[in-house]
Amino acid sequence: MSRRRTETIDRTTHDALIALLPRLRRFAYGLTGSVDDGDDLVQSACERALSRMNQFEPGTRLNSWMFRIMQTVWIDRRRVRQRRGISVPIEEIGELHGADGVRDDEARLCLGEVRRAVAKLPEEQRAVLMLVTVDGMSYREAANVLSVPIGTVMSRLARARLALGQSVGQAASGG
Q1: Which of 22, 76, 113, 117 could form a disulfide with 167 if both were Cys (CB 3.0 to 4.6 A apart)?
Q2: DSSP string, 54-115
Q3: CA 61 to chain centre
Q4: Nearest CA-CA partner of 146 in 163, 164, 123
């Protein structure tokens, strides 16, 4: 009977992990600025999680655990890249298809400006911005994922929003 219960927990965790993949991909894309690098980051984080599944405590939040693993993997990769001196540029936005070419072009340009502004943010601000504004996490959840106090999350988010507003505002005014 104990064996059956373990299989149910494993299957439940497995299903929850699969359901979490779109959120992990969004977060990874926000960190890396690249779909391909983001997918690699998600794969590495999932591999690490699966190899350390014995460390996951059933009944706790799988998403917080996974986001924390992803953040750790990303930090590890950044450190390796800094030591090696490798720099990967953020890919430009792909073509958007739509009926109104002028509006689509304006939207593409605006989105490109926002992406460039997000890419220029310090990583700490970018991670908080992605978790709270894109993934919809509460400040407390983001603080748990990033292992920082809530006040730090609020401060980083405020600075990120201010920097984005200034950057996009300057681009719109031609500055």
Answers
A1: 117
A2: GGS-TTS-HHHHHHHHHHHHHHHHHHHHHHHT---PPPPP-----S-HHHHHHHHHHHHHHH
A3: 17
A4: 123
**What distances in angstroms separate CA 117 from CA 65, 99, 110, 121, 126, one per listed residue?**
28, 27, 11, 7, 10
Instruction: Report yes or no: 146 and 71 within 8 Å, Cβ to Cβ.
Output: yes
- Fill in the DSSP letter of residue 53: G
Architecture of the domain defined by 1-87: Orthogonal Bundle (1.10)
Query: What span, in angstroms and rounded, lies between the C-alpha atoms of 114 and 33?
Result: 12
Chain segment 129-164, per-residue pLDDT in tens:
989 988 888 999 999 989 999 999 999 999 999 998
CATH level 2 (architecture), domain 100-175: Orthogonal Bundle (1.10)
Tens digit of each residue's pLDDT (9 = 90 or more) over 73-132:
998 888 877 777 555 455 554 544 445 566 666 666 677 787 888 888 998 999 999 899
